[in-house]
Amino acid sequence: MKYLSQFCIILGFTLAGEALQRLLPLPIPASVYGLVLLFLSLCAGIVKPEQIRQVSAFLISIMAVLFVSPAVGILDSWDLIRGQLLPICLLTLASTFLVFGISGRVTQRLLAKGGNADE
Fold first, then answer.
1. Could you give the angle at the alpha carbon of 105 between the alpha carbons of 95 and 119, nearest 5°?
2. How many domains does the chain have?
3. Contact present, 20 and 68 (Cβ < 8 Å)
Protein backbone atom coordinates (compact mmCIF):
# COMPACT_ATOMS: atom_id res chain seq x y z
CA MET A 1 0.00 0.00 0.00
CA LYS A 2 2.95 2.29 0.70
CA TYR A 3 4.11 2.06 -2.92
CA LEU A 4 0.66 2.77 -4.28
CA SER A 5 0.31 5.95 -2.22
CA GLN A 6 3.79 7.10 -3.27
CA PHE A 7 2.97 6.45 -6.91
CA CYS A 8 -0.33 8.32 -6.56
CA ILE A 9 1.52 11.39 -5.22
CA ILE A 10 3.81 11.40 -8.25
CA LEU A 11 0.88 10.72 -10.57
CA GLY A 12 -1.02 13.63 -9.00
CA PHE A 13 1.78 16.02 -9.88
CA THR A 14 1.85 14.59 -13.39
CA LEU A 15 -1.88 15.21 -13.70
CA ALA A 16 -1.48 18.75 -12.37
CA GLY A 17 1.22 19.33 -14.98
CA GLU A 18 -1.14 18.10 -17.71
CA ALA A 19 -3.83 20.49 -16.47
CA LEU A 20 -1.43 23.44 -16.40
CA GLN A 21 -0.19 22.66 -19.89
CA ARG A 22 -3.75 22.74 -21.20
CA LEU A 23 -4.63 25.95 -19.30
CA LEU A 24 -1.52 28.03 -20.02
CA PRO A 25 -0.75 29.04 -23.60
CA LEU A 26 2.99 28.42 -23.23
CA PRO A 27 5.03 25.91 -25.28
CA ILE A 28 6.17 24.02 -22.18
CA PRO A 29 5.64 20.25 -21.93
CA ALA A 30 3.26 19.00 -19.26
CA SER A 31 5.98 16.84 -17.74
CA VAL A 32 8.08 19.93 -17.05
CA TYR A 33 5.16 21.59 -15.28
CA GLY A 34 4.68 18.47 -13.18
CA LEU A 35 8.37 18.29 -12.26
CA VAL A 36 8.46 21.97 -11.31
CA LEU A 37 5.34 21.57 -9.16
CA LEU A 38 6.84 18.52 -7.43
CA PHE A 39 10.14 20.37 -6.91
CA LEU A 40 8.38 23.38 -5.40
CA SER A 41 6.32 21.12 -3.15
CA LEU A 42 9.46 19.36 -1.95
CA CYS A 43 11.19 22.70 -1.31
CA ALA A 44 8.17 24.06 0.56
CA GLY A 45 7.87 20.93 2.67
CA ILE A 46 4.40 20.10 1.38
CA VAL A 47 5.73 16.75 0.18
CA LYS A 48 8.46 15.09 2.20
CA PRO A 49 11.16 13.12 0.34
CA GLU A 50 10.28 10.06 2.42
CA GLN A 51 6.77 10.16 0.96
CA ILE A 52 8.04 9.36 -2.55
CA ARG A 53 11.52 7.88 -1.97
CA GLN A 54 10.94 4.20 -2.84
CA VAL A 55 8.81 4.75 -5.95
CA SER A 56 11.07 7.51 -7.29
CA ALA A 57 14.10 5.25 -6.83
CA PHE A 58 12.27 2.50 -8.72
CA LEU A 59 11.33 4.86 -11.57
CA ILE A 60 14.93 6.02 -11.84
CA SER A 61 16.16 2.43 -11.93
CA ILE A 62 13.91 1.58 -14.90
CA MET A 63 14.48 4.86 -16.73
CA ALA A 64 16.24 3.15 -19.66
CA VAL A 65 13.14 1.05 -20.34
CA LEU A 66 11.00 4.20 -20.36
CA PHE A 67 13.03 5.57 -23.28
CA VAL A 68 12.25 2.62 -25.59
CA SER A 69 8.98 4.10 -26.85
CA PRO A 70 10.47 7.52 -27.77
CA ALA A 71 13.37 5.77 -29.51
CA VAL A 72 10.93 3.80 -31.65
CA GLY A 73 9.14 7.05 -32.46
CA ILE A 74 12.43 8.52 -33.69
CA LEU A 75 12.96 5.48 -35.91
CA ASP A 76 9.46 5.94 -37.34
CA SER A 77 10.39 9.53 -38.25
CA TRP A 78 13.75 8.61 -39.77
CA ASP A 79 12.83 9.93 -43.25
CA LEU A 80 12.19 13.38 -41.78
CA ILE A 81 15.27 13.33 -39.54
CA ARG A 82 17.81 11.99 -42.06
CA GLY A 83 18.24 15.32 -43.85
CA GLN A 84 18.84 17.16 -40.58
CA LEU A 85 21.09 14.58 -38.90
CA LEU A 86 24.28 16.68 -38.82
CA PRO A 87 22.65 19.78 -37.23
CA ILE A 88 20.80 17.58 -34.74
CA CYS A 89 24.02 15.80 -33.72
CA LEU A 90 25.98 19.05 -33.44
CA LEU A 91 23.25 20.67 -31.36
CA THR A 92 23.03 17.61 -29.11
CA LEU A 93 26.80 17.55 -28.64
CA ALA A 94 27.01 21.29 -27.92
CA SER A 95 24.10 21.23 -25.45
CA THR A 96 25.59 18.19 -23.67
CA PHE A 97 28.90 19.97 -23.11
CA LEU A 98 27.05 23.12 -22.04
CA VAL A 99 25.11 21.16 -19.42
CA PHE A 100 28.34 19.46 -18.25
CA GLY A 101 30.05 22.84 -17.88
CA ILE A 102 27.20 24.53 -16.06
CA SER A 103 26.70 21.55 -13.75
CA GLY A 104 30.41 21.48 -12.94
CA ARG A 105 30.50 25.20 -12.18
CA VAL A 106 27.44 25.05 -9.97
CA THR A 107 28.89 22.09 -8.08
CA GLN A 108 32.23 23.87 -7.60
CA ARG A 109 30.51 26.99 -6.28
CA LEU A 110 28.32 25.03 -3.89
CA LEU A 111 31.31 23.13 -2.56
CA ALA A 112 33.31 26.37 -2.21
CA LYS A 113 30.50 27.89 -0.13
CA GLY A 114 30.99 25.23 2.51
CA GLY A 115 29.14 22.23 1.19
CA ASN A 116 30.36 18.82 2.21
CA ALA A 117 31.75 16.74 -0.68
CA ASP A 118 30.60 13.55 1.07
CA GLU A 119 26.90 14.53 0.96
1. 115
2. 2
3. no
pLDDT in tens, 60-118: 999 999 888 888 888 888 888 888 999 999 999 999 999 999 999 999 998 998 766 55
DSSP of 26-83? S---HHHHHHHHHHHHHHHTSS-GGGTHHHHHHHHHTHHHHTHHHHHHHHHTHHHHGG
CA distance 52 to 7: 7
Query: What is the widest separation between alpha-carbon atoms in the chain?
Result: 52
Regarding whether 53 and 2 lie in a shared domain, the answer is yes
51/3 Cα distance (integer angstroms): 9
Owning domain of residue 12: 1-66
Q: 73 and 62, same structural domain?
A: no
